[in-house]
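F.,

This is the one I mentioned.
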């Protein structure tokens, strides 16, 4: 048996090693991570728990008899997401670059698996049962596709700029993903993927002619998918004039608009929403922003939108700085995450205010749901890691120059 002093010394050494791994030494005045980005991520996550608590209590009481049912689950999701974020934060971006192909294939297998053994809810097979939890595979597929595309843009950058096949290859991968996701069906996720991939290809220097042709083809395909699917067409018609059938196809949107109307400038106060009392369907998931508008008012809406906009713009800025420092994979991935977050926010908010048809997409880091929160936290942790590696790399030339000078003397 070891002496107490030896045990204490061993514990101290292990703790020091763990601390050094999580918080490595840095140059004086150097910040390890983007503090503003970290504050934005944490602020939106905490706000999400508060709003889920307010919006889900009537639904939890009705379904389970426990008003805090969804709150407990969301807190569990958030704690798990934080653990995922800490793990992802320790993984070098070079690992994701090397494993991008495997990640893409793994997500592809998950998309096939969910169609074979997935859980069906309201006519959609989108969830893969994992014991007491359900994994929405499309969320994982989004991040996997963007990681793969970032790696492709680095490996085939010249081919993308000069040859048609360099542009077509990632589009073929997107089409395979889109086909499997449409079988679930989930058009909203496909649209998010399409817009993000187009944005990444454009920023990487894809030829304008090919880009324009593909965008037009994509728009035509989305229109065709809406026209030839009755329930999608019904959503579009009800979105154009929800008050024509306020108790039928336009019910959800009219209730959402009434929630915003009650919010006025300063809102009814946190917890005082009327629409969440079984009037507004999906109040704690897809339409949580309407409850937020009712309780926090126009000021609250603008504040949350500003936080989400700052998060997306910060991601784009980090991507810009990474590319300037010749960290191409990290830069393109940061661009993709920024486009993804901003476009999904626009679709979610646009659907709840009647600007866009209802698409069933979550509000990043705010809406209830484990899969979305886990994946978006992982993506946010990647942004922090990208910025961290860029900051560390910035100090290397200065260090090298000093060492050379000392050796010369």
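My design for it:
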């Amino acid at each position: 048996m070891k002496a107490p002093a030896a045990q204490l010394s061993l514990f101290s050494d292990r703790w020091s090693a763990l601390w050094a791994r999580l918080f490595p030494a840095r140059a004086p005045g150097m910040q390890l991570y983007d503090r503003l980005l970290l504050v934005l991520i944490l602020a939106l996550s905490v706000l999400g728990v508060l709003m889920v608590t307010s919006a889900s209590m009537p639904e939890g009481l009705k379904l389970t008899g426990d008003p805090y049912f969804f709150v407990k689950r969301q807190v569990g999701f958030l704690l798990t997401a934080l653990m995922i974020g800490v793990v992802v934060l320790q993984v070098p971006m070079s690992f994701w670059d090397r494993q991008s192909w495997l990640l893409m294939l793994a997500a592809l297998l998950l998309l096939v698996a969910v169609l074979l053994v997935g859980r069906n809810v309201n006519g959609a097979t989108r969830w893969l049962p994992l014991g007491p939890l359900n994994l929405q595979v499309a969320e994982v597929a989004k991040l996997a596709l963007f990681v793969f595309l970032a790696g492709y843009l680095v490996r085939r950058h010249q081919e993308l700029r000069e040859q048609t096949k360099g542009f077509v290859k990632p589009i073929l991968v997107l089409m395979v993903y889109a086909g499997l996701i449409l079988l679930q069906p989930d058009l909203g996720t496909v649209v998010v993927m399409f817009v993000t991939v187009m944005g990444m290809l454009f920023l990487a220097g894809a030829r304008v002619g090919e880009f324009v042709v593909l965008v037009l083809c994509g728009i035509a395909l989305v229109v065709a998918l809406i026209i030839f699917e009755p329930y999608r067409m019904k959503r579009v018609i009800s979105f154009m004039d929800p008050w024509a059938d306020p108790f039928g196809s336009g019910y959800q949107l009219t209730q959402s608009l009434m929630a915003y109307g009650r919010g006025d400038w300063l809102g009814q106060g946190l917890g005082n929403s009327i629409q969440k009392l079984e009037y507004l369907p999906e109040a704690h998931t897809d339409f949580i922003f309407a409850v937020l508008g009712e309780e926090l008012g126009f000021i609250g809406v603008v504040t949350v939108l500003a936080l989400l906009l700052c998060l997306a713009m910060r991601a784009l800025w980090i991507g810009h700085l990474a590319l300037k420092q010749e960290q191409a994979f990290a830069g393109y991935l940061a661009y993709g995450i920024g486009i993804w977050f901003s476009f999904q926010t626009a679709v979610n908010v646009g659907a709840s205010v009647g600007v866009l048809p209802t698409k069933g997409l979550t509000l990043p880091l705010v809406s209830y749901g484990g899969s979305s929160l886990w994946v978006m936290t992982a993506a946010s942790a990647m942004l922090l890691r990208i910025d961290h590696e860029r900051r560390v790399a910035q100090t290397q030339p200065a260090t090298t120059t000093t060492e050379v000078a000392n050796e010369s003397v």
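The chain has one domain: 33-389.

Talk soon.
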